[in-house]
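Lab notebook, page 48
Experiment: co-folding of the full assembly
Goal: obtain a model of how the components sit together before planning crosslinking
Operator: M.T.
Materials (sequences as entered):
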Amino acid sequence: MSILEIENLSFSYGNPRGKLLENVLEGIDIRVAEGESVGLIGENGAGKSTFLKLLTGLLTLKNGVIRVSGFAMNKENLKAIRAEIGYVFQDSDSQLFMSTVYEDVAFAPRNYGKSEEEVREAALSALRQVHMEDKVDRQIYRLSGGEKKLAAIATVLSVGAKLMLLDEPSVALDPKNRRNLIRILNELPGAKIIASHDLDFVYDTCQRVILLSGGRIAADGETEKILTDRELLEQHGLELPLSFSRE
Amino acid sequence: MSRISDAISELHKLDMEADKPGWLQGIHPLPKLFVTVLFLVITVSFGKYELSGLLKLGIYLIVLFVLGDISVKLLLKRMKVVLALVCLMGIVNPFFDRREMLLLGGFAVTGGMLSAATLMLKGVYAVSASYLLIVTTSVEEICYALRRLHVPKLIVTVLMLVYRYIIVLLKETERMTEAYALRAPGQRGLDYKAWGTFAGQLLLRSMDRAQTVYDSMMLRGYDGEFYLRCKRAAGRGDYLYAAVWSAVLLFVRAGSAG
Ligand SMILES: Nc1ncnc2c1ncn2[C@@H]1O[C@H](COP(=O)(O)OP(=O)(O)OP(=O)(O)O)[C@@H](O)[C@H]1O
Ligand SMILES: [Mg+2]
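Observation: model returned without errors.
Model output:
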C-alpha cells in the first residue's frame, strides 16, 4: 500500500492583496510506498519546501488530491494526517520553541498521550540517536546551528512517524554528524521524503529521486540513474554529486 | 553588547538559574508555588500599622536568600525599577496621618510613617518573593504548578505563549539591529528615517516567526493544552518544605494578631 498518493497537485501563493501569483507547483503526480525513501531535488525556488508544507497541511491545498495513509487531505482529517507525519523544518529556529532540549523533544510524545515514563524513554532514546544525550538540559537558545538541527531531528524521531519529511536535514552538520544522520535515516523503518541540495546525502539515503524544476516533475526514478545523469542535472541547474564528479 | 541581547541574556540567565543545581531549585514546583502564594497572602493580610509582625515575616526571605544562595545584589539590579516604584507607594502617608503612635528614643513616630513603612515593606516582600520563585523555577514548572492549583488552562497557556513570544520578538529585533548596524557602520543607533520601516518589518517578521512556532506546535500534536509535567513526583522533602514553611508563616501571622 502506498503511504502517500498525490494526484494532479498544483499550487500558487497569493500576494498580500489576495491575488494569486504564478503557480509554484504544477501537475504533480506521485506515489510513495510504505518504507520508501525519496530524495527531492531541484534548484533554489524549485518548490521543494512548498511541496513538503502542502503535505503537512501548513499550506492549504487548493488544487489536486493528497492522501496520507488513505486519509484525504482536508480539514477534518488534518489531525489524523499529522499524527502520521514528522516534519523537520528547513530552519530549525522555527521548529524549536520550548526552553530546553528535553522539553522540546518531549513535547510531541506528551501530546500523544504517553505516560511520563514513556515520554522520557522516547525523548532520551531520540536524543541518544542523534548523539545529543549530554545536552538534554541545555537551553535551546544556547545551542550551535548544527546542534539545533540535531535537536530538531530528535523532536521528530521521538514519535516514530510513518512518513518523515525532511527539509535540508544535512545543512549545518559537520561530517561526523552528517554521516551519523545518514545511518539513522537508513535504519528508520518509515517512509521518508528528503529535500536537499546535498546530492551525496540523497545518494546515501534514498532509493528514488524526484527532480523538481520550475514546479514540475522533470524526472522521477532510481537514484542511481538520475544522480549519474550529468546532462539531465545540468539542464535543471544542478551538478553531479561530488562523489561522481571526482571520478 | 546591545541592550536587546542584554535583555535576551537576562532571560536566559533566569532560565539558567532555574536549572542550576541547588536545593531550592530542586524543590518540586508545586510546594514552592504554594508557599509563595501563602507568603503573599499573609503579607497582604497584615494591617497598615502592623510593621513589627511584617518584619518578623521577613525571616522567610532571609532564610531563602541565604540558604538558597541567591544573590541580593542581582535582585536589586534586575528589579531596580519595580522596587523604586514600590518604595514610592505610601510616600505621602506621613503628610496626612500625623497621629503619634509611639516614641522611639525620644523621636515621635506618626501613624503615617508607620503605614508608609508597612506599605513599602509589603511591596518589597511581594517583589522579592516572586523573584525568588522565578529564579529558582522554570516557566514550564511554574505553569505546571499553576495548572495543578486549578488555574484555568487558557490563562496558563497564554502565559506560556507570551513568554515564548517575548523571546521570539527580542531575537528578531536583535537580528535586525545587528544586520542594520553592520551595514551602517559609524552610526550610533538607528537613523530616525529608518524607524518606520524598521518597526513595520519587525512586526511582520515576528508575526511570521510566531506563526511558524505555532505551526511547529500544531504539527507535533498540540491541541490547546501544554501537557506540562514535572521531571519527578513530589517527595517527602517537598511536603516537608511546604509543611514547615506553612507552619512558620502561620505562626508568625498568629503571633502578631491582636
Ligand atoms: N510565502 C510565500 N509567498 C509567496 N511566494 C513564495 C512564498 N514562499 C515561497 N515562495 C516562492 O515559491 C517558490 C518556491 O519556493 P520554495 O521555498 O518551495 O523553494 P525551494 O525549492 O524550497 O527552494 P530552496 O532550495 O531555496 O529552499 C519560490 O519562487 C519562492 O519565491
Ligand atoms: Mg526550501
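Interpretation: Residues 2-245 of chain A form a domain with the Rossmann fold fold (CATH 3.40.50.300).
Next step: discuss with group before ordering constructs.
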